[in-house]
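pinging the channel bc i need a second pair of eyes. not urgent but kinda urgent?? the chain im working w is below, pasted from the shared doc
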Amino acid sequence: MGSSYLTSPLVLIINTLLDLYIFLVLLRFMLQWLRADFYNPVSQFIVRATTPPLKPLRRIIPGFGGQDIAALTLALIIIMLKYFILKALGAGVVELANVLAPIGSVSIFGMLIIALAEILSMFINIFLFAIIVSVILSWVNSGGYNPVIGLINTLSQPVMRPIQKFIPPLGGLDLSPLFASLGLMVLKMLLIPPIVYLAAQL
């Protein structure tokens, strides 16, 4: 067995756990940005999970324009930490939008650009996830209260609302989630690869 026998599972575990926490941190930023209900049980879980590292960070990084800049900074710090750990374990690339980003062969500045691209990719993924889940919940929801539904609707509406103005339901069938999902996927395909290519040159 080669050295990758234990390294590959370790890389997978580190990547997954850190990505999940980055996801929570970005969700917290988006909940404040979109003025979501912070009394929602799901919102409360996100707040409790992300407050410990954010509390000291907010002492040196204030908000700007009502936005939680400390949360964005924390996400960036964790991504950079993830890259350094993966690089130390021999993982020279990370995958972003089906593009291999070379974290092992770029400068610190290039790595920072890749980290910003990952944040952008995760924002798009959150919108995409929210739209898909909102469609599924619209099929299975029995009409009772569900704290997840309000949160999902808050996350999906910034993308769905403009599209619904131009694409009304046809015969009772709402096609706006389909067009919104396609638009987000195309946007990620158009934005992320050029940023990764730029970072690879640094």
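so Helices lie at 4-33, 41-57, 69-88, 108-140, 147-166, 176-200. and The longest helix spans residues 108-140. — does that match what u expected or am i reading it wrong
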